[in-house]
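Input record, target 12 of the design panel.
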């Protein structure tokens, strides 16, 4: 049992003392007691430690997903069980697209390629609201999506984006260069 001074402090202490089992127990206890801020802090500060134990990675990821923290859960994606990866994908597709990173695109490509088109369209809509300074980034993002799609699917995607945003000529010029 971990003394509830501060879970973050106690985990650090146990790691320094090389008592890794107690450090893991403190992390699990913080999750069981629903200490959201502390779990979040530990998931960031002790990420490498957590990643060394698949069971602990699963527990931390499940907790983060349950509280809706998809952004921080992505740090553990490569070290979680497949059923949890499926849950992660579902949560990714539910949250607001303005918070997405390319990591989400790669994950969707891997696990749910049929959702890439929809994902990219929503991402483009979200980022175009931020103005012309994001055109290069959006173009790069669309180019990354091309790696997950057939030539025909990608061409249809570009057609749809062009139809939706035909008034944004500078943007259309940039994405037109992706054809071919």
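The sequence produced for target 12 reads:
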């Amino acid at each position: 049992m971990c003394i509830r001074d501060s879970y973050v402090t106690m985990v650090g202490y146990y790691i320094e003392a090389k008592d890794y089992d107690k450090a893991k127990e403190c992390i699990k206890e913080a999750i069981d007691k629903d200490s959201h801020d502390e779990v979040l802090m530990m998931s960031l500060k002790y990420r490498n430690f957590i990643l060394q134990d698949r069971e602990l990675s699963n527990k931390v990821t499940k907790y983060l997903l349950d509280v809706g923290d998809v952004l921080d859960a992505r740090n553990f994606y490569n070290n979680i069980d497949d059923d949890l990866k499926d849950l992660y994908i579902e949560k990714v597709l539910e949250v607001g697209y303005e918070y997405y990173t390319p990591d989400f695109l790669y994950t969707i490509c891997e696990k749910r390629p049929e959702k890439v088109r929809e994902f990219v369209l929503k991402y483009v809509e979200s980022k175009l609201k931020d103005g012309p300074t994001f055109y290069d980034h959006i173009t790069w993002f669309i180019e990354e999506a091309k790696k997950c799609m057939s030539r025909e699917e990608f061409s249809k995607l570009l057609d749809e984006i062009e139809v939706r945003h035909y008034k944004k000529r500078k943007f259309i010029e940039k994405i037109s260069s992706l054809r071919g």
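Residues 151-164 form the longest helix (14 residues).
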